[in-house]
Write a structure and sequence with these properties.
single chain, about 120 residues, mainly alpha, 434 Repressor (Amino-terminal Domain), two-stranded antiparallel sheet, about 50% helix, about 10% strand
C-alpha cells in the first residue's frame, strides 16, 4: 500500500493513503465488503465509539451499554431473553464473567456478535 507520513513537531501525525486503498480499508473495517486478498487479516468485531465511552466513562457493563445504545429497556430485553427484569439487572451488574451460553443469547437478542460483548 502506498502512503505518505505527515509529521508534526518532528513526530508522525498523519498517514495519507490513496483513496481507493482508504475505501478498501474502510470496507474491511466495517465488514461491508468481502476481503479481497487471502492474506488480509481476519475481520475483528468492533464496537461504536459511543458505546465504548459508556463502558469506560459511565462504568456500564457491556450488556447495559449495548442495551442503552440500541434504545432497549431492561424489560424489553428481559422479555426477549425469557427472563425477569430483576434477573437481567443482576446479569448487567455481574462483575464475574458470564457463561458463553448466556453471552450468545444476549448477543442474539441485541442483534450483535458475541465478541462485541467482550469490551474491556
Amino acid at each position: 500500500m502506498d502512503y505518505q507520513v505527515i509529521e508534526q513537531d518532528g513526530r508522525p501525525a498523519f498517514a495519507v493513503v490513496p483513496f481507493a486503498d482508504f475505501e478498501q480499508l474502510m470496507a474491511e473495517y466495517s465488514n461491508e465488503a468481502p476481503v479481497k486478498k487471502a492474506s488480509a487479516r481476519k475481520k475483528q468485531a468492533t464496537v461504536p465509539h459511543e458505546l465504548a465511552k459508556l463502558v469506560a466513562l459511565k462504568d456500564y457493563s457491556p450488556i447495559k451499554a449495548w442495551r442503552k445504545y440500541k434504545g432497549v429497556t431492561q424489560a424489553e430485553l428481559a422479555k426477549k431473553l425469557k427472563l425477569t427484569q430483576p434477573a437481567l439487572s443482576q446479569i448487567e451488574k455481574s462483575e464475574k464473567g458470564l457463561q458463553q451460553d448466556t453471552v450468545k443469547k444476549v448477543a442474539k437478542a441485541l442483534g450483535i456478535k458475541p465478541e462485541q460483548l467482550a469490551i474491556e
